[in-house]
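USER:
Working in pairs, take the chain set out below, taking as long as you need, and write a paragraph about the fold.
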Amino acid sequence: MNKLLYKLLMITLSLLPATTLAASLDEILAMKEPPTGVVIEVIEPGAEALRQKMLQISDAARKIRQVFPELPIAVVSHGAEQFSLTSKNIKKHKSLESNVKQLVSDDVDVHVCGTHASWYGVEPEDYPDYIDVSATGPAQINDYVNTGYVMLDL
């Protein structure tokens, strides 16, 4: 498959999960039975937007865990913001780094898209050990959704 066709396919797939199974934070908190887990898709233009989104995610994770203490939560970053999370770049954004580390220490899985990274010459080793590099962000999200996770629309 040529590179352009593959990029178009990945972009198209990245739009599907968020539009098909998203729930608001209030809807998740009101559930009588917890879902299998919660997955949060992140596509932002850069580091500052990602920092703000991670603060929202931290707040949402705290609220979810107050209602469902053991509920698995995952974050999948697969836009331009994911490059802010490389080992080299995250050190430039101390508050982002500490927020992501705190999420991970609170048992929130953080993933980035390996395919998107590869388009820009960024290798899996370029990310800190606490960030998982998935083959593709859309596939990672679909894997979560297919196992019963609910998409959180923030």
Summary: Helices lie at 3-20, 25-29, 47-67, 87-90, 94-105, 114-119, 137-146.
